[in-house]
Amino acid sequence: MSTPTPRRLLALLALAGLLHATLPAQAEPATAGAVSVEAGRLAIRHEKFVLANGFEVILVPDRRLPLVAFNLWVHAGPRNEAQGQTGFAHLFEHLVFAGSRHVPRGAFDKHIDAAGGTDSNGSTNFDRTNYFFTLPANQLEKGLWLKADMLGWMIDEVDSVALANQQDVVRNERRQTTENQPYGLVEEAKYHALYPEGHPYRAAVIGSHADIQRIQLKDVKDFARTYYRPNNATLVLAGDFDPAQAKALVQKYFGTLKPGPKPPEVRVTTPEITQERRLVMTDRVELPRLNLAWHTPPLYQPGDAELDVAAHVLGGGKASRLYGLLVREKQLAQSVAVMQGSQSLSSVFDIEVVARPGVSLDEIERLVDAEIARLAATPPTAAELAQARAVIETQVLQRMEKVATLADLVNHYNQMAGDPGFLAQDLARYDALTPAAVSAATAQWLQRERRVVIHAQPGDKLLPPEVPTPPMPTRAAKGERESLNGPEPWRLKPPAAASAKPLALPAAQSFTLPNGLTVIHSPKPGLPLVSASLVLRAGQAANPADKPGLAGFVAAMLPEGSATRSAQQIAEGLAGLGATLSAQAGAEEARLAFSGRKAAAREGLALLAELALSPAFADADIERIRAQRLAALAQVREQPDLLAEVVGQRAVYGEGHPLAENALGTVASLRALDAAALRAFWQAHYRPERAALVVAGDLSEAELRALVQPLFGAWQGRGEAPALAPLPPARPTAARTLVVDQPGASQTALAIVSPGPTAATPDAAPLKLMNAALGGLFTSRINHQLREVKGYTYGIYSGYTLGRERGEFGIHGSVRTDATGPAVAEIWRQVTGMRTRPMGAAELTRVRNAQLLSLPGLFDTNGAVVAGYAGNWAIGRPLSSITALPAQYAAITAADALKAARQHLDPSQLIVVAVGDRAKVLPQLRKLGRQVELRDAEGQLSRQ
């Protein structure tokens, strides 16, 4: 019996012209997307076939853009790890990128850069490991060449040197993402409490230091023999390719890989929790956090969809019950998040509530328990169920907007549901749900005695004893390498690119309303989705000297109430549309952004207009947002990377500059701001003649004009527009090293910063290309040396911020505590080298192509197009500057890049901010010969 397509989504797709009968691949329209209707059911057009060696391939032709996404899933994750080898699957993911027999170590990512690749990475979850990138369509053969070598010949290059290097990298990743992040250890403790010893879900995916370090070369080879074989992997190709050609190339590159034995089946029983398990933990955090977690049904099993909807009802957004109760009404919580984390062996239903300062977690827990009991006893309303469905359906559509996420969705369905075409059945689960079913699943699964409760309190972060990092071996021993597949010398030569289509970026047109509002429109027919952003000259730079944080406070207030709707009504309206809306102020501009389905465009744009033109600034809402922002200001102290950035801003701009303070403001300014100040700022800066509405998606110009004029045409600024005072120049402190103490920190967060040029600089393109080589790309000089060669970091990057009136340069990342001094010294060497001599021809070609050929992949969603044109308007550039980028990048020479480095990259001006363990870091940094000062969390001189 066929499953019906969800009616709302089917109607939307039909209106957008996306639904059509299945056509043979060769008869597809030149611009056809991947969505179709087959036998009355919504489907992703695909074809699956299996090679003789068991390798699964799924083709998803999608002609919307000249791009192809390559998405390889190896069906192995922590669920397949042996006892005492936590983190193995994730470590193996890193090793796969290290090199292969026909792609030398370090060359893989360089090939991706040189081809114009985007979205290149890998990830591991409990059930699988995936490897993905997106290339221009003319690089189909090169992508298959790379993927085949990753799967078939990576083990040939794994030796003790490669293993030791990636062990260092992964351990740095653990320090950065788990140990040096607020509540990071709480997440790990939650899984320890949920699952017993021996269960594959017990540990964090990243594993423990001890287990990562004890992995031996023999273990790596055994894992490869068992799991990294063609009969345990699936490749999805999604994008602009000829299916017949793709099949022939897949056979060419993957057909000779030797299959392995069938991997052992994972047979695991998850013991039922019959008595509540409670933990109290301390962490270096500012605010307490409550976690409640339950075992729930595995993915796609009965109860999974019901609990997904229950999560939306309880805490799926600002319209949810717990957000309304704990954040808005009682103001006990800083944030609420609820989710059904669906997995193959056992899912986890998780409720996470961060408390406001001084609030008892016991009180929050009682209120959460009462709300769960209410949902278990009384079904959700029809409106709540409709909101959950709308949000889920929009999220699915948005995953199909980008070929990279479309490919991953198909691979997900293939492994987890056993059917790459499971889309209709997936959505139908929610369409068939009744309120009573949601209530019954809540009552069955979310019982108090079946859960884990964790109270995380501010205090010391208790880390296990340090596992020493052995010295990096300098060379591999003889006989360490072996092969699963025989040598094929023809693979040593990378395949050439096919003829490329002319490189074209999404163009935009603009028109101006009589009131001065600029409207920028970039049409993108296809999926029925629309994104919009209202951009205003109302950022942090406009703050009066005595009112830091004012611009951000005003932006935060906009969704919290209008002249006709309360914050709750606004949130419920958005949820009913399945749409998202955000409001925030950056350094030089404020943005109100909307994203949703085309059917919601009218109401979404109307909401943007309503919030911008008639905010309420009600006293009760001001007090609530004030408390939220004061708590968020405190939370900066617990996040080393943010703290380094805040201290760096103060050092770059100098005391009294509008951009020197934290964008949130100060405790004093936040307490002093009132409705009169907020409204005065809004009246002065939220004006149509100083704003642009940027819209991209499935709207024609006629449709957009018909929407915009009635909604925004009556908008008038109040009184005469005040003159825009020019931003004062940066007044940086003298170049020196600033240390902020975080005792016991496992890493040092670095921000190496200086003033930089503005967007008006004529050498913006050479500057960006030069920075790509220095620290902008994964393959950059700084990241390569500190991560791949020395094992000091999980990742470190540099970049220029080119604003309308301000400019900055920064190098940001976290490094191992004991390598802080050597890491900074190495960064200095790379900066100096960038200024000393021009790039060689190979490096120049690679980084130029990485900027030039990747451009279509950087504008592949409505949101990306809107962000690009909104940012373009904010810094004062003409519309044509985006479509002119290809010609600009193509013309850059090594001499241009060298000149940009010498003009805009001065090591003598760089200020180093290091947030870490003072006792261990200070002696290292003093050896570098620069003046070192101690600063507090606000960037002020410390008396310690």
UniProtKB/TrEMBL annotation:
Q: Which SUPFAM superfamilies match?
A: LuxS/MPP-like metallohydrolase
| Coiled-coil region(s) | none
Any stretches that span the bilayer, and where are they?
Answer: none
Superkingdom classification of source: Bacteria
Region Disordered: list its residue ranges.
460-488
- Start and end of every Peptidase M16 N-terminal domain? 66-191, 525-644
Per UniProt, the keywords (alphabetical) are: Signal
Domain named Peptidase M16 C-terminal: which ranges? 215-390, 673-850
Residues of the signal sequence? Answer: 1-27
Q: Sorted alphabetically, which PANTHER family does this protein's record hold?
A: METALLOPROTEASE, PROCESSING PROTEASE
Q: What's the name of the protein? A: M16 family metallopeptidase
